[in-house]
């Protein structure tokens, strides 16, 4: 019976006792199996792994061990010290999906405060009218807003400026610029990195629910905020793209690097090519998904 089958599946699932970094799932034939965690909760409690890599929390460490097939243990709580293969390289400044969505939310809230109803003798302004007013104010006359013009619009209102709690003003300005690019990418239908008014209207339409893009790498998909390593550099998944640091790898940086045969210095040209390959792979995966939906 159905209840007996469910009970048996539950019993088998419990008896499997998945190890850390894994979770129970039902296979195609209805049999329980253990798979690597698809994603971890975002809470931050850094730990240093036995591989010299700093992880956001215990779950991320065990998930990485599961995905890579390596035996990685917690060396100690807190970020790694002394091993500068990965953890000593600062993560790149990126605009995460949450940052992009927060900037968009604040912009919409601000613009909605300027909507005015019709009066006895005064014609009001609806949301589209308000958007058109600001679009024309910051457009240089070509009928489009590029990233510089949209950034000026964002900076017009104080509440929309600070989208992070960082005290680093330089990084906060960079984050705003990156999130403006992410907003343009959100509704830039012809991929010219500019928004005409229809695209601008679509981007800031209150009822629009922005999609959550994932990053692809070696037949795996990664959630926003996931990190990976390329030589001694850190790569972060942000708004569907891999963003990497560009540090020249020093063969004397650490003994662990030598043990992993990562002592070859990476030139800027090689590094740019490798990052481009990551994102090209991402585009290929998205095209395949798109063609599958059409079929």
Automatic annotation (TrEMBL):
Residues 1-21 form the signal peptide. Residues 28-82 form the Kazal-like domain. CDD domains: EFh_SPARC_FSTL1, KAZAL_FS. One of its GO terms (cellular component) is extracellular space. Residues 175-210 form the EF-hand domain. GO terms for biological process: cell differentiation; regulation of BMP signaling pathway. It holds the Pfam family VWF. One of its GO terms (molecular function) is calcium ion binding. Keywords: Disulfide bond, Heparin-binding, Signal. SUPFAM superfamilies: EF-hand (SSF47473), FnI-like domain (SSF57603), Kazal-type serine protease inhibitors (SSF100895). InterPro entries: EF-hand-dom_pair, EF-hand_FSTL1, EF_hand_dom, Kazal_dom, Kazal_dom_sf, Prot_Inhib_GrowthFact_Antg. PANTHER family: FOLLISTATIN-RELATED (PTHR10913), FOLLISTATIN-RELATED PROTEIN 1 (PTHR10913:SF13). Homodimer. Interacts with SCN10A. Interacts with DIP2A; DIP2A may act as a cell surface receptor for FSTL1. Interacts with BMP4. Interacts with CD14; this interaction promotes TL4-mediated signaling cascade. This is Follistatin-related protein 1. The gene is fstl1a.
